[in-house]
Specification:
heterodimer, A: alpha/beta, globular, disordered C terminus, B: 110 residues, alpha+beta, four-stranded mixed β-sheet
């Protein structure tokens, strides 16, 4: 065994004592690839290995080209390898069934069905998914359990929960957690899980990142958050490094320079940590072939040769044009405020494109607010100025405001509002309400309420939502319908006021109305981001009756970059996927080029906005009329 | 004096105040407060809130309750009993109503 310190981190200990390995990092950095690679590698060494993904938009099935889903599945042709994709809906069903099972003794199927519906509250889902995740930290029949975790911000929230829950469990018997009788059992399971996570010999945390400053910032943030919980990151894999010899033209030479600066920063930020740098490839390798190549690199230090041939003549340009008039029709207000949602897999560049769009529209005279719902947002790095919980004006730009949902502040506001409702009750009652407010679903409720309130905010022509990665956003967008459905059951408890009901109904109606709302799926032309966006788009259509309006395709290689075989291979691959996107989505397309460096600051964003929304730099003729003349935006 | 039991049998619920949702449930919050007050006034009394989610065992222990639910479905909940006697079904009692019922049954015992 030749490589790299990393092997010690994944090597199982004694028989019957499972080792846990977490792969984490911002979306789209290659976590799934690295965790699958590691799982396959260990299984082939003869270790009984379980691979668990907690990503609500999982892609293990795509990687192993076999149906996996919410059950432990033996992977074809690889002995000792098992995998499961935790499905929050199914986890929630199982969880409810555990509560309901004993009731069958006194209730018939009809009544059981009623109880099941009453228990199907959106907040049970969150608890259930977490419960399922913890289950795998308590199963000694595997030598190694590998977690391909959900994108970072949420992963951390998931890990923070046990601490909070333990207090809830001690204080009160009736929380969201479940049947009182099993509470003590749950408590010790959560505590055991947390102690495993803090134990270096038992658990390894490997972070995957791309050589981009947003990815580095995210890793740094996670590292800080985790260390507060007594958890250490053990290793970094920096994925997608440009091969030096492929950077044969000005564009990529500059890009490589930019990359080197970031790599230097990564080394400075994590000086003592072990690292591996993994090169970008010229073609898409998928399935087992990719996993084997990556395994050889990670665990045997074998590097593939890259041969670079220069190309003669001009490189072809993509022939995709979006009708500008149509684009503006979809992005500007027609019937009151226009709500624009940018969503998609982590790491596809949602925030950057959303910021460029917001600046562009603001400079056209529309009073625009950009709001991020992603707890791991890097909006402030893109704008180069702080973005707060309350909308604040972006300095140096007329008409542009930005805000983020700060989970902690949202929770404080929510608690304050609820406690205000019971302010006339006695101290004991207030105390029990406060205890219930420390349950994990209160946190989600708080952020959700904040999100909902933006639909009632006056004074903006356009509100742009920059959302968290797909799975979490789907949940957020489905919540108004889920809660409304739950309230409509008209149970004795959980009666909500008409005001709340109307509020939810209004949000649902607004999101479905194409004259008011625009849903944009952002992706780059590779298989995983496309398929993930496609599934999410179908689910939105099915569950909430929201149609996708536009797709934005990011990181396209332009004609004046990449004058060699390496990049022409990648370009061919991109062309193939562009036509696949057109065939699947059948919506207008926004094309965003790969840039020399990440656009940060107003000037770079402005340039990007013009390239994307006007076709050419500095040639934009569209002048709209603002609807909000004279009205001051609310805060 | 025999020890009194006040039990409220309730349907499934997420938490006892109803805040695990869009808004707190005023009825449940008032109930919480009424029960606390009663407990202070009648220190010897057992006050129990039995929800199907958390204390199903208590439902099984009471044959009458099990039978009522079997026959009428969970829609018959909440049921309030004092010393095993049903004093309210399908609704929660207010503090004044509860107090009256408790006093009545106390006088019966004495």
């Amino acid at each position: 065994m030749k490589n790299n310190g990393i092997y010690q981190l994944i090597e199982p200990g004694k028989k019957g004592e499972a080792k846990f390995v977490f792969f984490s990092g911002k979306g789209g950095v290659g976590k799934s690839t690295m965790s699958c690679t590691t799982a396959v590698w260990l299984a082939k060494k003869g270790y009984k290995t379980l691979l668990v993904t907690t990503d609500p938009a999982p892609n293990l099935s795509d990687i192993f080209t076999q149906e996996i889903g919410h059950k432990i599945t033996s992977i074809n042709n690889i002995e000792n390898l098992f995998a499961i994709e935790i499905n929050p809906d199914t986890a929630s069903e199982e969880y409810r069934e555990r509560i309901i099972a004993p009731m069958r003794e006194i209730l018939d199927e009809n009544n059981i069905q009623i109880i099941n519906e009453q228990l199907n509250s959106p907040c049970v889902e969150e608890v259930a998914a977490f419960d399922k995740f913890i289950e795998f930290m308590d199963d000694p029949q595997y030598d190694v359990v590998i977690f391909d975790t959900a994108p970072t911000g949420h992963t951390i929230r998931l890990l923070e929960l046990p601490g909070g829950w333990s207090t809830t469990l001690e204080k009160s018997a009736s929380t969201c957690i479940g049947p009182g009788a099993s509470l003590q059992g749950a408590k010790s399971r959560y505590e055991k899980a947390i102690s495993y996570l803090q134990n270096d010999a038992k658990t390894s945390f490997i972070f995957v990142l791309k050589p981009e400053s947003s990815s580095l910032l995210e890793t740094q943030r996670s590292s800080d958050e985790l260390s507060k919980l007594g958890i250490k990151i053990n290793f970094l894999i920096i994925n997608g490094i440009l091969p030096e010899e492929a950077c044969t033209d000005e564009f990529f030479k500059k890009k490589k320079e930019d990359e080197k600066k970031i790599v230097k920063k990564i080394n400075e930020t994590f000086p003592a940590m072990q690292k591996l740098f993994y090169l970008l490839r010229d073609s898409e390798v998928s399935g087992l072939e990719l996993l084997e190549a990556a395994g050889k690199f990670l665990y045997e230090a074998k590097i593939e040769d890259t041969k670079i041939e220069l190309l003669n003549g001009k490189v072809r340009e993509f022939q995709v044009m979006t009708d500008q008039k149509e684009l503006y029709y979809l992005l500007t207000p027609l019937n009151g405020t226009r709500y624009i949602f940018f969503t998609g897999k982590g790491g596809v560049g949602k925030s950057t494109i959303a910021c460029a769009a917001s600046l562009h529209l603001a400079e056209k005279g529309f009073r625009t607010l950009i709001l991020t719902t992603d707890p791991a947002s890097h909006l402030q790095n893109i704008f180069g100025q702080t973005v707060e919980h309350e909308p604040t004006r972006i300095t140096g730009v007329d008409n542009l405001y930005a805000a983020r949902i700060d989970q902690k502040k949202a929770l404080e506001e929510y608690k304050k509002r609820i406690l205000d409702i019971v302010k006339d009750n006695d101290g004991e009652t207030k105390k029990s309400v406060e205890e219930d407010l420390s349950s994990p679903c209160a946190q989600e409720m708080a952020a959700f309420e904040r999100f909902i309130n933006y639909f009632e905010l006056n004074g903006y022509d356009i509100i742009i939502f920059d959302t968290a990665p797909t799975g979490h956003t789907l949940r957020l967008l489905e919540l108004p319908s889920d809660w409304k459905g739950f309230i409509d059951l008209g149970d004795l408890t959980k009666k909500a006021s008409d005001e709340t009901k109307n509020k939810y109904a209004n949000v649902i109606e607004t999101m479905r109305n194409k004259e008011k709302s625009t849903f944009i799926f952002v992706m780059y032309p590779e298989y995983t981001p496309i398929i993930e966006a496609w599934r999410a788009s179908e689910e939105l259509k099915k569950q909430v009756k929201i149609e996708t309006t536009l797709v934005a395709v990011n990181y396209l290689l332009s004609q004046d970059s990449g004058n060699n075989k390496f990049f022409s291979n990648r370009r061919k691959q991109q062309e193939k996927y562009l036509s696949e996107i057109q065939q699947r989505f059948k919506t207008p397309m926004i094309i965003v080029p790969l840039l020399e460096c990440e656009p940060e600051g107003i000037d770079k964003l402005r340039e990007l906005g013009r390239t994307v929304f006007c076709g050419k730099k500095n040639r934009c003729k569209f002048t709209p009329i603002s609807l909000s003349d004279g009205i001051q935006p609310e805060r | 004096m025999t020890k009194m039991n006040l039990i409220i049998y309730e349907g499934v619920m997420c938490c006892s105040t109803g805040v695990c949702g869009p808004e707190p449930d005023k009825v449940l919050i008032d109930l919480n407060q009424s029960l606390k007050k009663l407990q202070d006034e009648f220190k010897e009394m057992n006050v129990i809130r039995a929800s199907m989610t958390f204390n199903l065992k208590l439902f099984f222990e009471n044959e009458m309750i099990s039978r009522l639910i079997k026959e009428n479905g969970p829609g018959i909940l909440p049921i309030t009993t004092i010393n095993g006697k049903i004093v309210a079904r399908q609704k929660y009692l207010t503090y004044a109503e509860l107090k009256k019922e408790v006093e009545n049954s106390q006088s019966r015992i004495e």
